[in-house]
Amino acid sequence: MLFKAFEVAESSEKEYKSALVTKSEDDLPPGEVLIKVQYSSLNYKDALSAIGNKGVTRNYPHTPGIDAAGTVEKSADPHFNRGDKVIVTGYDLGMNTSGGFAEYIRVPASWPVHLPEGLSRKRSMMFGTAGLTAALSVYNLKKQGITPPNGKIIVTGASGGVGSLAVAILSHLGFHVTAVTGKEDAVDLLLDLGAKEVIPRAAIDDHSGKPFLKAQYAAAIDTVGGNILATVLKSLNYGGVATCCGLVSSPELHTTIYPFILKGIRLIGIDSVLCDHHLRKEIWEHLATDWRPAKMDKIVSVCTLDTIQEHLDSMLKGQLTGRYIVKIS
Ligand code: NDP
């Protein structure tokens, strides 16, 4: 069996170039479940993998794609049967295991989740890792007792994949959302997704050196890290909660201990890659039912294997808005 794949290879000049190539089943890594991929989606990590970031992918040639939704073609594990519809996100998919930017993947049986009732393969990829991460962030805020009457929730990197879905899910659940964006042209979209107000990125990038700023938010979903996360921590109400998942701004966090010891602020790290399989299933059930935002179609664009590279380039420049899904087959 031959199939198409988007492959990144290292040239003799140490540059990384992508191309559409033909592969065979024998090229796939070992694993119990062979899946025909119908949809994948674009995530920041894919963009890093496509430029040779060794923190994401060690060996090339490589097919990125940390997300895939498709149909089981063959399974050596009794939990999966031919024809089952499944989602695979995270674990090692697309990092050092050939990923979802191909017509076929082969993975260990511990990775796929059965597609929940009411969610199509296409819609599952509208969420993808970004949606799972946004929903895990919401789940953790709720677990810490944050409810709509507590006050405003600030979401950073709001026009990105994780951010826009966090805005949409929180708004759908009745929270008052303040969206932070660096893109003037994303304001209408974010208001449309349910944000009550949109503020420019510069407004939450404090360099005063003060340990606290005006307390304005009950909680935060941060997707960018760096000084923006540090500013968010200084702007939370007493007992506020922040989740952090990303490092688009910076992986560094320079802050003081004061928000934690004087205001009881809690900072929670979010990991969607190795998150517990039962929790993962629970989150996908929520995304298929009560947490499914009505307006998410507005933030989704579709591309194909031929046009992935140009969108990954835009993603690295912070220029993409919303979610891009990839129609594979
Ligand atoms: P996107 O590229 O879709 O979105 C990131 C957004 O961040 C941009 O749209 C932009 O939004 C904002 N941004 C871009 N550059 C900067 C900058 N220099 N300073 C501040 N803000 C900036 O990425 P994703 O939403 O897919 O991922 C966001 C982060 O979360 C990434 O770091 C990713 O690796 C991480 N991630 C982590 C996961 C986990 O399990 N921990 C899972 C998934 C993602 P705007 O213009 O609106 O400000």
UniProtKB/TrEMBL annotation:
Q: Which InterPro entries match?
A: Acrylyl-CoA_reductase_AcuI (IPR014188), ADH-like_C (IPR013149), ADH-like_N (IPR013154), ER (IPR020843), GroES-like_sf (IPR011032), NAD(P)-bd_dom_sf (IPR036291), Zn-ADH-like_protein (IPR051397)
- What single Pfam family name could you report for this chain, choosing any that match? ADH_zinc_N
**Superkingdom to which the source organism belongs:** Bacteria
Q: Ranges for the Enoyl reductase (ER) domain?
A: 17-326
Show the Gene3D superfamilies listed in the entry.
Answer: Medium-chain alcohol dehydrogenases, catalytic domain (3.90.180.10), NAD(P)-binding Rossmann-like Domain (3.40.50.720)
- GO molecular function per UniProt: acryloyl-CoA reductase (NADPH) activity
Q: What is this protein called?
A: YhdH/YhfP family quinone oxidoreductase
Record the organism. Answer: Arcticibacter tournemirensis
Q: What is the lineage of its organism?
A: Bacteria, Pseudomonadati, Bacteroidota, Sphingobacteriia, Sphingobacteriales
